[in-house]
Amino acid sequence: MSLKVTDLYPLLSYFEECHEGDLLSFTVWLDKAIYMFHYLPSDTFSETERQNVCHVLMELKVAVLKIHATPLHT
Considering the entire predicted model, what is its pTM? Predict the structure, then answer.
């Protein structure tokens, strides 16, 4: 599958608007969200739900870093 810039426009636009194009800023906020998630009251989510959400956030971070490192085709 070949990615095009238009496929990722909403995500790239978010980086530009909310993080001034700073991918590191975005990944730091994801890390903080994962960290804070562990401090929610234990009855808010089951341990499995907590692990699954943290996993999804980590995978999102990895995917964004891969997008950033991969040249896009216009």
Answer: 0.69
